Amino acid sequence: MIGIFDSGIGGLTVAREIRKKIPSADILYFGDVARMPYGNKSPETVTEYSREIVRYLIGRGAETIVIACNTASAVATSKLRREFSVPIFDVIAPAVKVALQPTTCNLQPDQKIAVLGTRATVGSGAYQKALAAASKKIKVTALACPIFVPLVEEGYAGTAEGAEIVKHTLRPLVSRKPETIILGCTHYPLLKKEIRAVFPKARLVDSSAVADEVLKKYREKGERRGKTGRIEIVVTDLTPHFLRFARKIIGSAAKIKKIGVERLNK
Ligand code: DGL
After folding, report:
1. Which end of the chain is more exposed for a tag (fewer CB within 10 A), N or C?
2. The pTM is what?
3. Which atom of ligand 1 has the smallest separation from the CA of 41?
4. Residue-wise pLDDT tens digits, 205-214
C-alpha cells in the first residue's frame, strides 16, 4: 500500500496522478486538514506533524510513503528517512529532475528557473540547493507566494480577481524572464492558467512528477496487474470544502474517514 500525505487537499492531485500511473496500487491518503496550513509554520512543527502521520500510515500498512506536501518535503524529508525504514518519496527531487530536462525550447545549460512556494519551502532553500547541486550554471530565483494557498482555498482560481493577485505577486519575477517555473506547492497547479498568463512562454513543472518515480519503484518490484487498487482518504477534519474537492479530484470511489489528531499518537 502507498501512503500519501499532505497538509490538506492539494496533495490529492498527486494521489490522482499516482493512481493513474499505478492503477493496481492500494492508496491511503492522509490530509491533515485540522492543522493546515503547514506553509507558514516552523520546520520543527511541520517535521513533528509529518513524523506523526508517517507513523500512522506505516501502522496502517503503508510500505511506501509519498510526501505530497512541498513544505513537508522541504523541511522533513531527510529526518523522516533517517527515522523510518520504508522508502520515502518527496516531491522536490522529481520536480527538479523534470525542470532540468532539456526541451526543444529550452536547451541552454544556463537556463533561468524560478521556484514558487510557501514561505517555509522557499525559506528552507531545499529547491535552490537541489538545483545548485545539479548545475552551477542555472540561475535560480525563488519567490514565496503565501497568498496563493488562501486564494485557491477561497475559490479565487479561475476568477479575474484571482488573476490580478497572481499577476501582482509574480511581479518581482517578470524582469528575470524565467524559462522554467517550478510550482513548488500543492495548490499552485490550480493557478496554472493565471501563472501562464504572466509567463506565457515558460515551462511549468509541478509536484505530479513524483508519480513517475513511484511508478519506477513499482515496476522494479513487479507491479500487480489486473486489479484496481483501493483508495481510502483519512483526514483530521472533514469539511464540506474538502469533501467537494476530494469528489472532484478522486471521484466517488474513495472512502473518506475523519480521525482526531490525538489518534495519531496512539
Ligand atoms: N501543502 C502545502 C505545500 O505544498 C500547501 C498548503 C499549506 O501551506 O499547508 O507546501
Report:
1. C
2. 0.94
3. 8
4. 999 999 999 9
